[in-house]
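My current task is to audit a protein record that another person submitted. Alongside the sequence sits a line of tokens, each denoting a local backbone shape. Please read both lines and tell me whether the tokens look consistent with the sequence. Do not assume that whoever made the record got everything right. Thanks in advance; the entry in question is below.
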Amino acid sequence: VNINGLINILDCCKKYGTDSVVFASTSSVYGDSSSIPFKESENCSFPLAPYPATKRAGELIGHSYYVQEGINFTALRFFSVYGPRGRPDMMPFMLFNSALNKKKIPLFGQGKLKRDWTFVEDIVQGIISAVNNNNGYNLINLGRGFPVSMLDFIKVIEEITDLEVAVDYVEKPSSEPSETFADISRAKELLSYNPSVNVLEGLSKMWEWYKDEI
């Protein structure tokens, strides 16, 4: 889907004269990089799972269509997006569910893994700006630029809900990086991107939505 679907879209752009594509990529293309924070200039040749591998392939395919067909292509590398209407199989939703239903969920690496949690409203503003400023070929991080450990993330949820999150500590799988951390200087320069929602604010908004959904 990630590869063939993108090629179908780019071929349609070529056929019907559309010269601009904004592509949803992922911070996972960086793999378990030791270069912190993650910069778009990194090689990104060593993803840890098939999903980021196909997203990295999409970025390269986009470059080839930019060169050959003149289709402007911006790949946005999203960092741990969360917020209202989040998927139930994603960690923030699962943590709220754990707190409410006292159902244990697996937590990797003793909760020490860090993620650059980025609120969905900030991500959407970045996407809109990319659509309106899509010139040439660009790889752009969209993150908060502030990694938070899973233990601290859980503490915020417990503070908001006044409930305890039940976890089962398990070994970190090979597909999980130890930390994600976006360098967002390029996004600020090209998109005037300025994420403003911290984890406490974002999780509070998600909790209000979650309570209405259950």
